[in-house]
Each structure stands twice: as C-alpha cells, then as structure tokens.
Write a structure and sequence with these properties.
The chain is α+β, with helices and mostly antiparallel strands. The protein has helices at residues 2-21, 36-41, 86-106, 124-131, 136-149, 151-158, 179-188, and strands spanning 26-28, 31-34, 49-52, 61-64, 68-73, 77-82, 113-114, 122-123, 162-167, 172-177.
Length: 195
C-alpha cells in the first residue's frame, strides 16, 4: 500500500512539473510569444508578438509584430509565420509617436534617442517635428510616409504571409522572408522545425 501511495505521489509530482513547464508562450532564452487574447488581457492592444525580455510581462524588445499565426521552437531556433496587419501597425506606430511626443513636451524638451518598433533609433525632437501640431488626418499621412520609407515595413507589408527565423543563441532575427527564402535559410542552417 505504501508503494502505491509513493508511486502515485511521484506520478502527480512529475506530471504537475511537466504541465507547468510546457508553457507554449515561453520560447527559451528569454523569448516569449504573446498571443492575441493575452495581449488584450494584459493591456497590450497591438496584437500577437514575439518579444525578448528578462521579465515575461515587459514588452520593450519586440522582435516580430502582429498578426502571428504560428510559432514553433527548439533549443536554438524559433520559426514564425506572420500575416501582416497594416491597420494594427499604423495604430501602434501612431500611438508610440504620440506617446513619445507627449513625453518630450512634458520633459521640458529634454532630448534623447528612443527605439520605436522596428524603425531605426530616433531623437525625441525629430518625433515632435514629425507629429507637431498636426490634425489626425495629417498624422496618419506622416505615419504612412514612415511606413513607406522603411525597407523593413515595406517588405513586410508586400507579402500576405511572412516567415521569420530567430536564432536564440545569436539573438538574431531573419525576416520578413518569403516562403522560398525561409526554406532556403532553414536548409542552410539545418533547421528541422516545421509548421
């Protein structure tokens, strides 16, 4: 009888640790996947993302933005399938630009450099110049111009589906890639993950 109880206890302990460690949102090496439903629940309105962080609930280093439809990972790599969402992208950029403009004005125009999404680093005074005292339609036009001038966003929005590969050891993101580029990169790096 004692052996049955010991075996049952060991099984419960083992299965509970297995299920608690199988969080599909934790991708290893401080990489995380935040699905749409959780994004909205945590107050992050920009949709599903892949991000890197020391803290699971801090979204400062976003690697891939919405809409993410599939994610697979192993010890070294993460592969991602994305259906880009231009409306969410524009909304997110607009909110970030307005937030940083407000910060700049409240800090008595103390300038510093910030990173917004996948754009190059930008000075706060430049953000203030871009947004200025514009009306909502002209802010939207400025955001459209920023997207059009960004090689990253132009390529991302050109395709209906994009593929990404993240090398967790090198902290390197390859993408957006076409399906052919994705398969070639997987083959070249001996990546066996599949969707």
């Amino acid at each position: 009888m004692k052996t049955i109880r010991t075996t049952a206890f060991a099984f419960l302990l083992l299965s509970s640790s297995f299920f608690s460690s199988c969080d599909e949102r934790e991708l290893g090496n401080n990489y995380y996947y935040l699905p749409d439903d959780e994004a909205y629940d945590t107050g992050f309105p920009d949709g599903s993302i892949i991000y890197k962080s020391e803290d699971k609930n801090s979204f400062a280093d976003i690697k891939i933005i919405a809409d993410i439809s599939e994610v697979k990972h192993d010890n070294r790599y993460i592969i991602v399938l994305q259906q880009p969402n231009k409306a969410k992208l524009k909304k997110s950029l607009k909110e970030q630009f307005l937030l940083w403009k407000e910060y700049y004005l409240k800090s008595n125009r103390n300038d510093s450099i910030v990173q917004i999404a996948n754009l190059d680093k930008i000075q706060l005074n430049k953000i203030n110049d871009i947004i200025g005292d514009r009306t909502p339609p002209s802010i939207n036009k400025a955001i459209d111009s920023i997207i059009a001038c960004s090689p990253y966003y132009s390529k991302m929005l050109k395709n209906n589906s994009n593929y990404y590969i993240i090398d967790k050891r090198a902290d390197a993101t390859f993408g957006p890639l076409s399906e052919n580029e994705f398969n070639t990169t997987k083959l070249k790096n001996n990546i066996s993950l599949v969707f």
